[in-house]
């Protein structure tokens, strides 16, 4: 469907299918190649950046996905986190049934219709992650300054 979309519109007409903002043709083609590849974008990293993972990235990561997401799921989210081997990681799966009877899917969590059901949970997660990041940052700072 991606190739047909690019042929008809000349770009990734994401608004037409309700998937957010439109994407330039070259970005859409790159995204498609990642999705079709067994190793996601590892080959791109190796080719363009001369690395297979983001080893220098050490900031805490909180990955959040919903139970009815067919792209970000129990298999793909942990795989994505492997690209950041030296970062502290936390993976959270939100059970859609707990918050709504509607389908949420891959990007639905950002739709206004979930403002009262899913957004408060996201805000709590972000605030909790901010506190944890601050604590981790403070501990690293203390370690660097006074050698704790």
Description:
- The chain is mostly helical and 148 residues long.
- The protein has helices spanning 2-9, 25-36, 42-49, 76-81, 96-99, 119-146; strands at residues 61-66, 89-94.
- It has a two-stranded parallel sheet with strand order 1-2.
- α4 (76-81) links the parallel β1 and β2 (89-94).
- It is flat.
- The model is unreliable at 140-148 (pLDDT under 50).
Detail the topology: elements first, then pairings.
Elements (H helix, E strand, L loop, with lengths): L1 H8 L15 H12 L5 H8 L11 E6 L9 H6 L7 E6 L1 H4 L19 H28 L2
Parallel strand pairs: 1-2
How large is the radius of gyration?
Answer: 19 Å
Q: Largest sheet at a glance?
A: 2 strands, parallel
Distance between the termini: 55 Å
Average pLDDT rating: 83
Continuous helix count:
6
Output the helix-strand order.
Answer: HHHEHEHH
Shape: flat
Strand content: 5-15%
Provide a quick synopsis of the model:
The chain is built from six helices and two strands; from the N terminus they run αααβαβαα. It has helices spanning 2-9, 25-36, 42-49, 76-81, 96-99, 119-146; strands at 61-66, 89-94. It has a two-stranded parallel ribbon with strand order 1-2.
